[in-house]
Specification:
Chain B: It is a multi-pass membrane protein. Chain B: Belongs to the binding-protein-dependent transport system permease family. The complex is a heterodimer. By secondary structure, chain A is of the alpha/beta class. Chain A has helices at about 40-50, 70-75, 95, 100-105, 110-120, 140-150, 170-185, 195-200, 220-225, 230-235, 240-245, 270-275, 325-335, 355-375; strands at about 1-10, 15-25, 30-35, 55-60, 65, 80, 155-160, 190-195, 205-210, 215-220, 260-265, 280-285, 290-295, 315-320, 340, 350-355. Chain A folds into two domains: about 1-245, P-loop containing nucleotide triphosphate hydrolases (Rossmann fold, 3-Layer(aba) Sandwich); about 250-360, CBS-domain. In chain A, the strands form four sheets. Chain A has a six-stranded mixed β-sheet, sandwiched between helices. Chain A has a four-stranded antiparallel β-sheet with strand order 2-1-4-5, with helices on one face. Chain A has a three-stranded mixed β-sheet with strand order 11-12-13, with helices on one face. The longest helix of chain A is centred in the last third of the chain and has 22 residues, at about 355-375. Chain B is built from ten helices and no strands. Chain B is mostly helical. Chain B has one domain: MetI-like fold, CATH 1.10.3720.10. Classes of the chains: A alpha/beta, B mainly alpha. The interface of A and B includes residues 73, 74, 86, 149 and 158 of A.
Chain lengths: ~375, ~220
């Protein structure tokens, strides 16, 4: 465990970058430091590998004060990923990744085979091994940066705004990749970002820092969204924190309506029997069970249903796997106001109204409150 | 008679191709002086430029030293050194080295300073020793510029090494000075042509060195 114990960083000109910060960073999970620029989050990260030395206080790693450890061996035991990757332009991709193993005295062949292993792990094609960094896209370079940090299999990974310089789509891919890698490897990751969405997406624990280097709140993301410590944290979370919090509630609690669904080859009796007064629309599915679209029952002629006559259903949500946020979004985007739930194979599992989702949200909140009371 | 005729006459004269005053001997001497001066200038300029560039300190002092030594007239320095030290190779080397240090020193300093700071930060964060950072991260990135500095120093040395002849030494300056003294313009032009050719060869040699030593990753990205 990394323990930051009332650490202050004061520069010679009197600026205080970090002010009596105390944090306990749990093992084998992602802890995110987030805050506006100038809040000391990067300085805090850089104190963990002693790129910056604290003015006061101590940082311990598994109970040992890091200031007592030889600085270079400490750094070699911690992977370090920075914005723009910071790759060595004069070295090939495989040699970039092999850097730390080589520093640790591995021979070239072993370091390179380890590097190729890591390329696969971070989703880089082996054909890129002999390329130079300038030949790769920003997202690929960042993957190399992550692979390089993981090369010597360090227990700790320090990541300083690693995905800030890539476009949103690539960033989302990199975030998913990081979560996947973390599932496999279980590193202790300290991740710095200024993007609260990224923090909530990645962090098991999120430390919100405020200007002046003070800790505003340290909590799991769901708790951060449900009970921000003060107005600063609330403002920082943004106006849609209620919606975002729904990401932490499962859609499993929703009661699906299974009646108003017909296949594209439905008979007139089926169309008539499946129309109810509560559901003014019928969901038409293909023969494979996948949803095609909505229609009013009166517009459906048995034996002559074409996909062109159907209303779009927006996007479906996967029942049980997606969150209430995805379900609500599906309902909001659906022209009928009903969300379509699908199973893992993409077959229609049922439909659910905005009203039902609303009830599920209220129930989840009530449960969340009692949970919080139990925990408190 | 125009310059081309002089050149043609000089190079076709068989007597110019052997003996102690033959072209091979003079070229060899010229190369020897030039390499010696460049080696000394590099031995002084490169380490200082690398270290000051790495730590980012002393840039102003360097600029001052460079400007100061640039303003020293090479020929004046030569005369001064001969008066002081007598005849020999040393009084020739000193002005040549003084001439070559500023481009080597200042370019090396600037080259190391201009290396992208993020790989350096990454290297330090990975636990690389400072000397390794300098030689394995900064130097490879700075190499194209450093070689550029050495190249301009080398060209200046090659064209200025003719002064060795003033103090009785050899080299290609011999043809120019003797030719002027003897009013043998064929010799003057021939010597000058050889100096110009050697400068071109120097450029070629540096191009080859950079092809071999600069990583393709740096060459194409830079």
């Amino acid at each position: 465990m990394i323990r930051i114990d009332s650490v202050t960083k004061r520069y010679p000109d009197g600026t205080v970058a970090v002010d009596r910060l105390s944090l306990e960073i749990p093992d084998r999970s992602i802890t995110v430091l987030v805050g506006p620029s100038g809040c000391g989050k990067t300085t805090t990260l850089r104190m963990i590998n002693r790129m910056v030395e604290p003015s006061e206080g101590a940082i311990t790693l598994d109970g040992v004060d890091i200031s007592r450890q030889p600085v270079n061996s400490l750094r070699r035991s911690m992977g370090y990923v920075i914005q723009n990757a910071g790759l060595f332009q004069h070295r090939t991709i495989v040699d970039n990744i092999a850097t730390v193993p080589r520093l640790l005295g591995w021979n070239k062949a072993r370091a390179r085979s380890r590097a190729r292993e890591l390329m696969e792990r971070v989703g880089l094609d082996g054909s890129l091994a002999k390329r130079y960094p300038y030949q790769l896209s920003g997202g690929q370079q960042q993957r190399v940066g992550v692979a390089r940090a993981l090369a010597a299999d360090p227990p700790v990974l320090l990541m300083d705004e690693p995905f800030s310089a890539v476009d949103p789509i690539v960033r989302k891919g990199l975030q998913e990749e990081l979560l996947r890698i973390q599932d496999e490897l279980g590193k202790t990751i300290v991740f710095v970002t200024h993007d609260i969405d990224e923090a909530i997406r990645l962090g098991s624990m999120v430390a919100v820092m405020r200007t002046g280097g003070r800790l505003a709140q340290f909590a799991p993301p769901a708790e951060l969204l449900s009970s921000p410590a003060d107005t600063f944290v609330e403002d920082f979370l943004g106006v849609d924190r209620g919606i975002r919090r729904l990401s932490f509630f499962t859609s499993e609690t929703l009661e699906l309506e299974k009646t108003p669904i017909v296949a594209v080859d439905a008979t007139a009796e089926q169309i008539a029997s499946r129309s109810t007064s509560e559901t003014p629309y019928l969901l038409v599915t293909g023969l494979d069970g996948r949803p095609l679209g909505w229609s009013e029952p009166g517009d459906l002629v048995a034996g002559d249903i074409t996909p062109e006559q159907l209303l779009s259903y927006g996007h479906p949500f996967e029942y049980g796997r997606d969150s209430l946020r995805a379900a609500l979004d599906a309902a909001v985007l659906s022209p009928t106001g009903w969300a379509v739930a699908v199973d893992g194979a993409g077959r229609a599992a049922g439909v659910v109204s905005q009203q039902t989702i609303g009830e599920a949200i209220r129930a989840a909140h009530a449960k969340g409150l009692t949970d919080a009371k139990v925990a408190g | 008679m125009n310059v081309l005729n002089f050149i043609q006459a000089f190079f076709s004269d068989g007597s110019h191709w052997h003996g102690y005053d033959g072209i091979p001997t003079r070229v060899a001497e010229h190369i020897q002086y030039s390499l010696q001066a460049l080696a000394i200038a590099a031995a002084i300029g490169l380490p200082i430029g690398l270290v000051t560039g790495h730590y980012g300190r002393g840039g102003n002092t360097l600029a001052l030293v460079a400007t100061g030594s640039r303003s020293l007239p090479t020929f004046g320095l030569l005369v001064l050194m001969v008066t002081w030290l007598g005849f020999g190779l040393t009084p020739v080397m000193i002005p040549l080295v003084v001439l070559a240090i500023p481009p080597v020193l200042v370019t090396t300093y600037e080259a190391v300073r201009s290396v992208d700071p993020s790989p350096v930060d990454a290297a330090r964060g990975m636990g690389m020793h400072e000397s390794r950072i300098l030689f394995q991260v900064e130097l490879p990135g700075a190499l194209p510029l450093i070689l550029g500095g050495l190249r301009s120093a080398a060209i200046q040395i090659v064209s200025t090494a003719t002064i060795a002849a003033y103090v009785g030494l050899g080299g290609l300056g011999r043809y120019i000075i003797d030719g002027l003294y003897q009013r043998n313009y064929e010799k003057v032009v021939g010597g000058a042509t050889l100096v110009a050719l050697m400068a071109l060869v120097t450029i070629g040699v540096f191009w080859a060195i950079s092809r071999i030593t600069v990583s393709p990753g740096v060459r194409r990205s830079g």
